[in-house]
Amino acid sequence: MDTPLFHSGVVAIIGPPNAGKSTLLNQMLRQKIAIVTPRPQTTRNRIMGIVNGAGYQMILLDTPGLHEAREEMNRQMVRVALESLNEADVTLFLADSTDMAANKLEQRAEEFKKYLNRITSPVVLVLNKRDLLSPERLLPVIDWYRTLHAFDAIVPVSALQGEGVELLTTELVARLPEGPKYYPDDIPTDATERFIAAEIIREKIFLLTRQEVPYSTAVVIDAFTEGEAGRPVIIRATILVERSSQKGILVGQGGAMLAAIRKSAGADIGQLLGCRVRLNLWIKIRKNWTGNPAILRELGLA
Question: Is the pTM of this model over 0.85?
Answer without folding.
Answer: yes
